[in-house]
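Continuing the series of single-chain predictions for the mutant panel. This is the parent chain; the variants come on the following pages.
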Amino acid sequence: MLRAANLQFARIVDEFVRWRGVPEDERSAAPGWWWGPAFEVLCLQDPLPDACRTSLGLPAGATYGDGARVFLESLAGQTALPWPDHFPRKPVNSDPP
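Parent structure:
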């Protein structure tokens, strides 16, 4: 696996952990910048490192392709993507009702 793709994938795994750490009702939509790194490894059958595998909630023996599907599923069905400064948490509306 290319080192650059590995680094990008590890970065989005870290972001995924931060994003999932936000309560669901406060969490932003999944960011569109996950698409590229996920598609880069979608067909790879190399074993996913244990740290990435457990962070994504995948079983032993999971591959990079399995990890990529976690990201693609989180993006499926969304009709809008967050701005980078609205990730991982939705912005708090400070305007009065």
